[in-house]
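Hi X.,

You mentioned you wanted examples for the new student's onboarding notes, showing what a folding record looks like when two proteins sit in one file. Here is a clean example. The first protein comes first, with its sequence line followed by its C-alpha cells.
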Amino acid sequence: MNEELRERLETYHEEDDYESIVEAVLEIPEEERDYEMVSHLGRALNNLERYEEALEQFHAVREEGKDDPLWHYRTGLALYYLGRYDEAQREFTIADFLEPGDEDTLEFLQWIREKKGPERAPEPVLASDSAARLEEAVVPAEPTAWGEPDGGPNAAGFWDDLHPDAERYVMEPPSDERVASVEEALVFKLPAAYVSLMKTHNGGIPRNRLFVPEGAEDQAVVISAILGIGREKDHSLCGSLGSRFLMEREGYPEFGVIIAECPGDSGVVMLDYRESDNDGEPEVVHVAKGRPGKITRLAPDFDSFIQGLVRQP
C-alpha cells in the first residue's frame, strides 16, 4: 500500500470516518489489495458493526494474519459481537499469547468468561515469562484413540478436516508401491509410525499443533500441517512445494525429510537421520528458517512427536 493511501486511511480512522475507509479500499480491485489494506477494511467494518463482512475480510488474509496479534484480536472482536464466544475466546487467547498483557484483549476474555460461566471458560494467560506462559496456555490434548489395527491414531479425533486449508494437504491413503516410490525419491526409509498414520489419513492439519520439548518449554514449536506421502498435492513429500523443494529453495539441511510446515517464517519439522542409517529410526527436529537455521531436537522418534502434540491456546 502506498504512503498516500496509508495516511488517508489513518486520518479517516482518527476522525471515526469508517465509511470513507470502506469506500477507499473497495475502490481498489480485490486482487490488488494487500494485507494492510484488508486489515484497514476489516477494522472499519468492525467499527461499523458489520461483523459478518469483517469476518469475510479477515478470513481472506488468514494465512498472512496467523502470526499477527491484531488479526486475532480483530477477528475475535467480530466473533464476540456475533455471539460466537467459543471461537472468539480462542482468537483473543492467541492474541494474548502473541502480545501479552494487552488490556483490551484481557477485557474481552473477562467478558467471555462472564457470559460462558466460570466452569466452561479458562482463565486468560497472564504470565509474562515465556516458559510459564506456555505451561499455562497449553490446553491438554483431548484423548486420542490409538487403537486402530495398524497402530495409527483415530482420524476423526486427530485431524481437523474442517480447516479451510485442509484440502491442500489431504490425499488418498498411499499404497505400499506408492510408499516405496516416495522413499526411493527421498533416499530415506520413512518411519513405520509415519507410514501407518498416513495410511489412515494421508496428510492434513492436526487439531493439536503445539509441541513443547520436555525440559525446554522456551523452544516450543507450532506446526501448521503434516505432509502426506505422494506427489499429487503440491504440499506433499514429493510435491512441487514438498521436502526437496524446501531444501533447495530455503537451504534446509539434507540430512532427512521435511514432514511438517510451520507458520510464517518459523521453519519446518524434519526427520533427522544423522544418528541412524537412511533406513533407521530418525529423530524429529525443528529447523529454523535461515542459512544455516538453528536445529532443535524435539523427540526421539515420530511416534513420540505425534503423541506429544497439544492444543494451541
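Then the second protein repeats the pattern, sequence line and then C-alpha cells:
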Amino acid sequence: MTVRKLSNHLYIFYSFVFLLSILHVFWQNTTLFTIIGVLAIVMTAISFPRSDRIFKILGFVLLAAGTFFFFSGEATLKDIPLFFAGNISLLLLISMLPWMNSVVRAGRYNKLLQSLLGGNVRGLGTLYARSEVTMVSLAAFLNLSSATISQDLLKEKMKNVNTKVRNSFITMATLRGYSLALLWSPLEILLATSIFITGANYLQVLPWMLLIAVIGIALDSLVGKWMFRNEEIPAGSTKEAPPVDKKKFSQFIAALVLFLCTVVFLGNVVQLDFLFSVTISIFPFAFLWAVLVKRRRSFLHIGWPTWKWKTNRLDNFIVLLLSLSFLTETLNVSPYLSYLQNPLIALEGNPLWIMFFIQGAFLILTLIGVHPIATMGIFGGVSALLTGTFPPVTLTILLTTCAIATVPAAPYGLIVTITSVALRMNPYQIVLRNLPYSIGLGLIGIGITSLSLWVYS
C-alpha cells in the first residue's frame, strides 16, 4: 500500500486512539492512559511532516520548550507518554465537529443565511447591523461555513460599492459577528478548552457569555451604523432576495436549543464533564436531527466522506495540541514554573491588573502568530495560581473572552486567512481594521469578569 493510500486511512488509527480515550473516561487506568500517550506520540510523529509551516514552527518551539522543562525537573522517561495524552479529548471533539456541519448542509440550513442576509436593504449602516446579528445567530452551528457563505453573498450584493468600503464592511461585519457567536457556542474549542482547564459548569458560564455577546452586538452594531451611515448600495445592482423559510428557521433555532439542553443534561444530571458531554452528543444528535427532517440519507452521504477527509487532515491540530500538552505537563513539574508565576504573584491581591495582564498576553502573542489555544495552555499551566484568585466561572469568562476577542485580529488565524484570500487583502490590513474591536471586546470581558467576581466572592 502506498504512502498516499495509508494517509487516506489515518482516520482508522485516529479513531482507535479516540475510542481508547473514551474508554479511559469510564475506566481510569494508568496503563491505559500510558498506551494512549504512546499512540499520541506516534500521531505527532505522523502529523509533523504533514502539517503547515506555521504549525511545524510552533510545534517545534513547544516541544523544544517542553524538553527543556522536562530535563529541568524530576520527571522520568516513563512519564513522557502521560505528558502527551492530556489533549486527546480536545482532538476527539474537533474530529466530531464535521458531523454537525454535515447535518446543517444536508438539511439545507445554510441557505437560511443567504435569505437572512439578502434583504432589500440599501443603506450599509442598516445592513451592517443585520449582517452581524445574522452571523451571531447562525455561526454557532455553521461555524466557518457561515463566514464564507456570508462573505460571498455580501461581495455579490456590494459589487458596485467602492472596493475599500466593501472590504472594510465585510471584514468587520463577518469576522466580528463570527467571534461573538463563538463566545457561547458549545462547539467552540476555545470555550471548551477554558472549561476543561477551570472545571467550571457550562450552565453557569452560559448566561455571562450571552451577556457579553449581547453587549458586543449592541455596541459594534452602533459603531458599524455610524461608520457606514453615508454609504449605500446603488439601486438595481442586486436581485431581490428569496423570502426567509420561517419553518426551517424555527427548526434550526429549536435544534440549537435542544442541543444546548442535551449538553446541560449530560453535564448536570449524568455528571459528565462539559468537553466529553459535547463530544459524545454531536453524532447522535446530528443523526436524529437528520432523521426527523427526513434527510438521513443525505446526512450520511455528506457526513461520512467529510468526516474521513477532515479526520485524515487533523495534522495541524495534532501537532499544536499534543505538543502543547507536553509543554504544559512538563512546565507543571519544572522549577521554572515559578518564573511564569512571578508576574501573577506580583499582581496577587490585584485581580483587575491580572485581568489586564491576561488580556495583553493573549493579544500580543496572537499578533506574533501564537494560536490562542497555545496561550490558553500556558495559563492552564498556572491554573492553580489563577483559581486561587478567581472562582472557576469567573476565570472561564476571562480566559474565553480574552482568547476569542483575538480571533478577528489573528493574522495567521484560519478565519482571517480565508477572508484575506476571498477579498485579496493583506492579513495585516484585516488585523488593523479589527484590532480596536478585539481590544474593546476584551475590555467588555474584563468588565463582566469583574461583575462575576463580585457575585461569586
